[in-house]
Amino acid sequence: MDYRRTYVRDLFAATPGTEISVFGWVKTRRDSKGISFVQVSDGSCFRDFQVVVPAGAIPDAELAKVSTGACVRFDGTIVESPAALQAVELSATGLEVFGEADPQTYPLQKKGASFEFLREIAHLRARGNTFGAVFRVRAQAAQAINEFFHHRGFHYIHTPIITASDAEGAGAMFQVTTALEANAPLEAPDGHFSYRLKTVNPSDDFFGRPAYLTVSGQLNAETLAMGMTNVYTFGPTFRAENSSTSRHLAEFWMVEPEMAFCDLEGDMNLAEEFLKEVIGNVLDHCGDDLAFFNQRIEPQLLTTLDHVVNSPFERLTYTEAVAMLEASGENFEFPVAWGIDLQSEHERWLTDVKVGRPVILTDYPKEIKAFYMRANDDGRTVRAMDVLAPRIGEIIGGSQREERLGHLEARIDEAGLPRAAYSWYLDLRRYGSAPHAGFGLGFERLLMYITGMKNIRDVIPYHRTSGNAEF
Question: Which of 27, 141, 273, 306 is 20 to 30 Å apart from 282, CA to CA?
């Protein structure tokens, strides 16, 4: 056996009379008048392929092993199919069962299951229609992201997962340490293991200083941009927020481009091009999967995505947006006033009600944005931008970075951060500083938007949230 074989996605165009093998997992089996009809999927596409087992073609003892969930290979001949949904099917002459699945205990039966239950069996859920479609879209979107930047001359870089710097200045970070008690691990009642931290001087710990899982690769990406012009990083990041909402994860993937010789206008242009091209790519390559989401998960999904791809994004300042919200007459749960961090309800009103297409907001109050964003001359706002998409709200956040040494030092001090920890970052301003800009996009947020899935736990293979680190 070799990975270079015919996948289910290729079988629908096979020529009748072709001798071929079908590999995959059994979705369903039904028997009628001695003939067995087996739906097989290998995950390569949304559609299952029908295998027909004529009476007597396969010994009953072997055929009895073919139940939902079993992993099989059918050998046979491609024939024309009388079924309405596919032109051809396989008339089976041989069978190999690689792995049986007990029909009494296999949890993915034909009957529907809640998403909550499927999260409990995340190691199996990719075999179902919904999550097979989710993870095919995820794979295609990731490929599209890399193609987007490659075609524009960006260098793909890898930034550290372990860091000593807090990129956001918010402190919600996971500490990395080897300072464990000598008698650990201690077996916990649930069968897991727990460890007790020693009280040690940070200089005696593994890295010789406090170390954390990164919340962003941005600061490191800036260092590469200052020598390579245009770069991007696409990898896992971590945030220790004790949040159980449908929009937050403790481990998630971020796309973070950084561009030297670029201002906020260029940053907005890149963000708009990025969303249009990546979504358009998925529309072109995942039609069956998106049609399923449009039918079962989010009505009008395809219309919304097509609208994003083909509509110009509106551009407003934060101040203009607040004025619109205040004049709207809407009874928002969270009152609107200049200086607040806009809530999801405010963002959705701007995109869905007021403008009717994606919106890019700029020039936010400096108090609600990170220390590294370039200060405007008014002393109140910074050169930040957020891209708001209909139905979901913020999907991209970015800014022109502060390239002036004195201004950046002042902002670090205002944020209460130690200058010493950012000495290398300040060096970028001391030695050959250049205007530069970039943005961050939470990959899972984008996938929620593309698929219409309502919970971020359902667009990542294994979710990590407060109280959950299974698998």
Answer: 27
Q: Which two tokens stand for residue 111?
A: 């009957």
In angstroms, rounded to a whole number, what is the distance separating the alpha carbons of residues 300 and 236? 31
Give ranges for CATH 2.40.50.140 in the chain. Answer: 8-99
Ranges of H-type helices in 231-386: 264-285, 287-296, 301-310, 318-326, 344-348
**pTM above threshold 0.85:** yes
Q: At what angle do helices 443-451 and 287-296 cross, to 10 degrees?
A: 70
Tell me the average pLDDT across 156-163: 95
Mean per-residue pLDDT, 408-428: 92
Strands of 157-206, DSSP E:
162-163, 175-176, 186-187, 193-194
Which distant-in-sequence residues (6+ apart) come within 8 Å of 160 by Cβ? 214, 217, 220
Phi, psi of 398 (to 5 degrees): -155, -175
Calculate the average pLDDT of the chain: 92
Contact 459, 267 (CB under 8 A): no
Number of helices followed by number of strands (H, E) in the chain = 13, 18
- Amino acid 109: pLDDT: 82
Beta carbons within 8 Å of 420's beta carbon, 6+ residues apart: none
The tens digit of pLDDT for each residue in 220-275 reads: 999 999 999 999 999 999 999 887 788 889 999 999 999 999 999 999 999 999 99
Both tokens of 424, joined, read: 């290398």
CATH fold of 129-173+215-458 reads: BirA Bifunctional Protein; domain 2 (3.30.930)
Contact 433, 372 (CB under 8 A): no
At residue 36, the 3 state secondary structure works out as: strand
- The residue assigned the tokens 């993870």 is 135
Look at residues 213, 118, 135, 115 and name the one whose alpha carbon lies nearest to residue 168.
Answer: 213
Cis peptide before 185 (omega within 30 of 0): yes
pLDDT higher for 129 or 185?
129
Return the CATH number of the domain spanning residue range 8-99.
2.40.50.140
Q: Are 355 and 308 in contact (CB under 8 A)?
A: no
Instruction: Work out the pLDDT band at 62, boundaries 50, 70, 90.
Output: very high
Other beta carbons less than 10 A from residue 408's beta carbon? 24
Structure tokens given for 103: 């029909």
Place of tokens 């059994």: 26
Where do you find CATH 3.30.930.10 in the chain? Answer: 129-173+215-458
d(CA 318, CA 399): 13
